[in-house]
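Problem 12. The chain below contains 486 residues. Write out its predicted structure in token notation.
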Amino acid sequence: MNRPQLNPLPGVGFNPVLLLILAFHRMLALAAGLFLAACNGGTSPPTITVGSSGGGADVYYFEADDDVSGYELWRTDGTAAGTYMVRDINASASSGPDDFTIFNGEVYFSADDGVFGEELWKTDGTVGGTQMVLDINATGPWGSSPQNFTILNGELFFIADDGVSGYELWKTDGTTHGTVMVMDINTADGSYPQNFAVFNGELYFSADNGIVGHQLWKSDGTVAGTHIVRYINFTGSAFPSGFTEFNSELYFSADDGSSGTELWKTNGTEAGTVLVKDINIVGGVGAGSGPRRLTVLNGALYFLADDGLGGRELWQTDGTEPGTVMVRDINPNPNAGSGAIGLARFNGELYFQANDGSGSGVALWKSDGTEAGTVAVRYVTPYIYDLEDGGFAIFNNELYFRGSDGINGDELWKTDGTTAGTVMVKNINLTVSVNSYASNFRLLDGLLLFDADDGVNGNEPWRTDGTESGTVMVRDICPGPCSGID
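Solution.
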């Protein structure tokens, strides 16, 4: 069976090169094992930390390569001694553990042991407690490639390919017998469920039943309770994505085949699944505003969109058509747009990257939801791809991100929301204008962990307490210039 297909971004035409870039970037992000839910307005996997026995410190699980065993399951408590491989799952090559998710006090993930292919695994942090849950694809050594893990009503939902039905919706209670397909939605060639979100005790997602492409579906975990909510697009895939709960409804972007990708909402019924507003009405049929980064703040839903006149800017909605408006036209130049990227909640405001077109370049911006309160914090360039994946972290009442001042390359930065308080924490890679690629932030027992390359030891796990002297490498997993973390 074919692996799930990547879909174009909302409002962006098909571009195979772009899709390859996005696919590669997603692999890098997933390899790090973390998406910070605190900084993402949409639905995200939980932070991959579990309580350890002993000192009460948290433990972070991730994929790493020590240049001996290949990419295997590792853990860290933020110390060199507490950073080690949990188990060499594939003794002959890399097992490539991925999609880490906490469920019932254990960490679930996908891995390839070299015998059964990429299957569903779990670990309690010990060698003996790291085991395969089920060989879902028993037709050969290819594996079922489980992914998109999401918890609902005491069960872990995901997609997998059993080698017969294609990629379909599965669930597990953590046992072999309790790992089953929920429903064969597309009996011909797999429904490729994606973009999972929990809303009102049910799982919402995009799936293709083989009739008119990807539409809005929901499931309560039973066959009878798994069904399409509405055929949004009768001519092709609607590609619903970016699900975010707001005012007891679920908001998302979708393409109805006429308006293009626009802002929609649902209360879970067919009649209650409606277009909020056709924001881009000047670009012709199917243009779409491409809403993204849906984020709730202070009683309003914010997102980034392009109305076809002002380019991509910050918008807000109260759920009504007249209440869906642009917050500020940051770049007033016709059709230019500020190119706003990101959106992170911090101290009652939204933070993002934008360019006002004044010639000063890209800056870190913030907004309180008003035009006057949408201002540049400092002209430092946050790293674009990190921001698109919610690459901010709140630590000790400051907002951390990967940025560049144009002199030191991409390094670790933080802000308290003021110009003076937006500073580089440490120039990790001392080579002029060379990046340390500080990224993949995760909170751990009073520290902020991240990955970085100091130009000497390759890309390795680092930690910071917020000071320059307290920003140090945790362990050189792959000794020398090679990288322990991809």
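Discussion. The two ends are 28 Å apart (CA to CA). Students who got a different answer should revisit the alignment rule from Section 12.3.
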